[in-house]
Amino acid sequence: MPIEANLARLNDQIDDACRRANRPRSEVSLMAVSKMHPIEALLEACATGHRLFGENRVQEFQEKSSALTHCPDIEMHLIGPLQSNKSTRAAELFHSIDTVDSLKLATRLNSAAQTLGKRLPIYLEVKLSHEESKHGLAPDDLPQLLNEIARLSNIVPVGLMTVPPWTGPDDPEPARPYFRHLRQLRDAQQRFHPTLTQLSIGMSNDFTVAIEEGSTCVRIGTAIFGKRDPLASAQPAPGPS
Hints:
- With about 240 residues, the chain is of the alpha/beta class.
- Helices cover about 40% and strands about 15% of the residues.
- The protein has one domain: Alpha-Beta Barrel (TIM Barrel), CATH 3.20.20.
- It has 10 helices and 8 strands.
- The model is unreliable at about 230-240 (pLDDT under 50).
């Protein structure tokens, strides 16, 4: 199906999930995850009026960014692991860094944002799964990191993010306890850190459960853009026409 139809279908499904959860639709954003998809797919989504996107790698988005002159109001989040030596470029390219998991990275992002004269929103990524492939800080380390970040003036912790273990496309229920745990972690810290209001949880296979558990942003790629083509995403972005 074309990207426009996929976005419309997903927005209808998010509407339904919000109604079932008795939540205002305005509380939940749809992030189109364009990582490893060619720039043409991102531009097609942008042409429908969609503006919130997620990319995994600094270099990949840097190559795409030159072709986005027709989407000046696009909001791009970095949702993949970030090496601290790439923090300066990330702070330049992205509107939000959603995978902060250490004071070292937070400090580097703060310095980069200070140089740029901006306040940079960040999400803290919490690892709730025992899978080796997952990233993030331990739940017990969250309060201390938030307290340390509070002393940094140019980054703003706005929410938490996690990725639950993959259990297949057919049953989203196994993800529920991980989403609930993250919400409880946020709620416990929110009275000390009032900017911490967001939960970036839920992907193509489990976003309805995530909405029921309090998600404010669902990150969906395959259901919008189809299966990823690593070779296509590696092609140089076309110049502006």
